[in-house]
Specification:
It is a single chain. This protein has about 450 residues and is α+β, with helices and mostly antiparallel strands. The chain folds into three domains: about 130 residues, Beta Barrel (Elongation Factor Tu (Ef-tu), domain 3), CATH 2.40.30.170; about 50 residues, RNA polymerase II/Efflux pump adaptor protein, barrel-sandwich hybrid domain (OB fold (Dihydrolipoamide Acetyltransferase, E2P)), CATH 2.40.50; about 200 residues, no CATH class. The strands form three sheets. The protein has a six-stranded antiparallel barrel.
Length: about 450
Amino acid sequence: MTPSSNYTVKFSDADKRVGRTQIIAGYSIIAVFFSCVFAWSALAPISSAAVAKGVVGKDGHRKTVQHLEGGIINEILVRDGDRVTRGQPLITLRDVQNKSDHELLNKQRLIALAKQSSLVAELEQREPDLNFLPAGKTFEVIDASVRTTIEGYLSAAKSRLQLHRDQLDLIDRRQKQAEEKIAALRSERAALEKQRRVLAQEHKKYKEFEAKGLVTRAHVFSLQRDKTEIESDHSANRVAVENTRQEINNLAMEKSELEGARAKRISNELDKTRSTLVDLDERLSKTRDRLERTSIQAPIDGVVVNLLVNTIGGVIQPGEALLDIVPDSGDLVIDARVKVADRDTIRVGQPAEVRFTAFNQRLTAPVTGTVKLISADALSNSGPGGLHDSYYKATIKLDEDPASVLGEGSVYPGMQADVMIVTGKRTALEYFLKPITRSFQRSFRDE
């Protein structure tokens, strides 16, 4: 047989048995391995999580400082990173117009107070004084134009008071004269009464003499005429007394009307002046508030961030955000942006793991936290091309002090963080099968 000829190798029965045993052992090992892998994938739980980007903040959130009316910047007293205390001035605005308005209203109020004081003095019929001046302020230090106006009010009040007194004195003199006239008329009446009695007696006697022929009738007629004249004078006297009494009553009424008209005039002017004072006080309160707001102050203790104004003389619009203050008080929290697709899997109270991007991810452990709050509705940010990125805001409260976990530095508000919110546990098999089952579900629903 040549070397190139075919030949057959024959194995003994023992060799065949050894080969089959090795093959069976190999397949058994492979089967056991895949069985273990399948058992692990079907039974071993793996935590599922929603991944979100977040920013470190303070519980209570940063405070945005705004201004109600706006204005022109006079001075910027802080910079980003400055620590401030509550009530500390941050920015001052120009207050020229507000000061001018406030001073003008103060002058008007002082004039109104002077008018009110002079009217009250006039009503009480006394000389007006300077008791209306604010404490510690003398008449000499008042603005010249205001002082002139006040002097005019005081002088006019004195003149009106003197005129009123003169009018009352005139009425009193006329009343006194009328009373003196009544006294004289009463004396005259007494004399007339006496004359009338005497003439009546003489007339009676002479009539008896006439009857006896001792006197003539002409003499009796003469006495009768005298008696009639006396009666007439007596009647005229009585009428004069009544007229004089009526004059006294009229003078009393005139005096009362004069007093009433004067009191009414003063009361009306007082009401108007007091109404003016109320209006001025309200306007002064507003200008005082505006003056106080020209100094924009820190509402809380904290650190200045995001200072948006830097130009002296720049204009601030009403309600414009000027800067933010991160509060000193409050625990650190993470404001995370959860994808809309993950919203149904997250709940308040779920655990979370936070990794801070400023630190080496391989060398630092995650900080544990808990979902404290989830926004009620989706929020959105405007992106490039007018697109809107929708998300839910989740607040993560840190359960550990980051410094104790990280060990290599401190965490500050504003730092970026990656958040993994643990949403549940699933097996590896469920992870593998979910895309397939989801695909089947969709395929059976498609038309």
